[in-house]
Design brief:
Pfam family, one: Nucleotid_trans
CATH topology of one domain: Spore Coat Polysaccharide Biosynthesis Protein SpsA, Chain A
CATH architecture of one domain: Alpha-Beta Complex
Number of strands: 10
Strand order of the largest sheet: 3-2-1-4-7-6-8
Keywords: Membrane, Transmembrane, Transmembrane helix
Structural class: alpha/beta
Low-confidence stretches: 1-23, 27-67, 69-79
CATH superfamily of one domain: Spore Coat Polysaccharide Biosynthesis Protein SpsA, Chain A
Organism: Triticum turgidum subsp. durum (Durum wheat)
Distance between the termini: 91 Å
Helix content: 40-55%
Strand content: 5-15%
Protein name: Nucleotide-diphospho-sugar transferase domain-containing protein
């Protein structure tokens, strides 16, 4: 009997050790599940909204945004701005995952031979990205721009900006320029509320390769930067809101609401990028827990931090550049360089010594050293 009790004890001890081993193995998995549940729930909510484009789905996605904490009185009780026809237009523009590319144009930029032609042409000249034009919503800020847009593009939307001079080539930081950028953010906020992700791109960004391949699926927001410090999550990177992606969730709807509301906290001539730069830490470290990543300038290039390589770049932004004519000159050089590169057979591309032409005219407007 003693040996039997000993055997039973040994078996019981073996079971206990096995249970402890299994529990030890399962515990990290359970913890990871609970930590990830917030993003999983949001992802499932987003997927359901993309599949069922009706009022109840969009309301379900955004109805909890009001439950998130807010910072003081900022006009959140005002009736949401109306955007006639936008909800009906977005399903025709969106990709299968509910993402819309958005850019904006005034009459000066939409005229034949101006920025709109360069922008649209870059999709056709790029590597397999022509189809992305079908998912691009061009927001016209005056009736003249709308008419010119409709002549060349299937998805145009009129957002009338109540400011003088919006049809002309507005100088950076003029009052009409500021009203333009804040009005665009209001429309983008509405796009998120309707359950759509968006990638906003300035019109002076040339598209060369598919940028979505380099935007993290786990990012709430991915934003370009004039100068990249090598760490995609380092908040010391300065954002450039001329090219950025936002995923539609309750938290990002609230983020953009607070971004818009924060305008009143800054000087009257503060633009959207300046305000976002000042408050981005509040979104990341606060209760919204926004996952913000910065895009590498080696892939999302621009005139501020110029890279000569042509084999990886997805977009080229005429940032750090003043005046429309100057942008047009240096962007045309980019187009010519890209066409020369694209015409090479694949083996020659690999060994090509071709480099982008230095944007000398733009650099002169900003006194950027070569």
């Amino acid at each position: 009997m003693g040996s039997l009790r000993s055997t039973q004890h040994d078996c019981g001890g073996g079971v206990s050790h096995s249970l402890l081993f299994l529990l030890g193995a399962l515990l990290p998995t359970v913890l990871l599940f609970f930590l990830a549940s917030d993003r999983v729930d949001e992802q499932l909510s987003s997927i359901s909204t993309f599949r069922f484009r009706n009022g109840s789905s969009a309301h379900q996605l955004t109805s909890h945004a009001a439950d998130l904490p807010t910072n003081g009185s900022d006009g959140g009780d005002k009736k949401e701005e109306s955007f006639p026809g936008l909800a009906e237009l977005l399903p025709r523009v969106a990709m299968d995952d509910g993402t819309v590319i958005i850019t904006s144009v005034n009459e000066a930029f939409a005229r034949p031979g101006s920025l709109l032609d360069l922008f649209r042409g870059s999709f056709h000249d790029g590597e397999g990205i022509g189809h992305l034009l079908n998912h691009t919503l061009i927001v016209a800020v005056d009736p003249g721009a709308l008419a010119l847009c409709k002549a060349v593009h299937p998805h145009c939307y009129l957002l009338e900006v109540m400011a003088a001079g919006v049809s002309s080539a507005n100088g950076f930081m003029t009052r009409s320029y500021l009203e333009l950028v804040w009005s665009k953010l209001t429309l983008q906020h509405r796009v998120l509320q309707l359950g759509y992700n968006y990638l906003y791109t300035d019109l002076d960004v040339l598209w060369l390769r598919n940028p979505f391949r380099h935007i993290s699926l786990y990012a709430d927001m991915a934003v370009s930067t004039d100068r990249f410090n090598g760490d995609a999550e380092d908040l010391t990177n300065a954002p450039n809101t001329g090219f950025y992606y936002v995923r539609s969730t309750n938290r990002t709807v609230e983020m953009v609401r607070r971004w818009r509301a924060a305008r009143s906290r800054f000087r009257p001539l503060a633009h959207d990028q300046e305000v976002f730069e000042a408050i981005k830490g509040e979104f990341v470290a606060g209760e919204l827990r926004i996952k913000l990543v910065f895009l590498d300038t080696a892939l999302f290039d621009g005139f501020c931090e110029y890279h000569g390589e042509m084999d990886r770049v997805c977009t080229m932004h005429a940032n750090c550049c003043l005046r429309l004519a100057t942008k047009m000159h240096d962007l045309r050089n980019v187009v010519a360089d890209w066409k020369r590169y694209s015409s090479l057979p694949p083996p020659e591309k690999m060994s090509s010594k071709l480099r982008w032409t230095y944007p000398a005219k733009c650099a002169a407007t900003m006194k950027i050293p070569a």
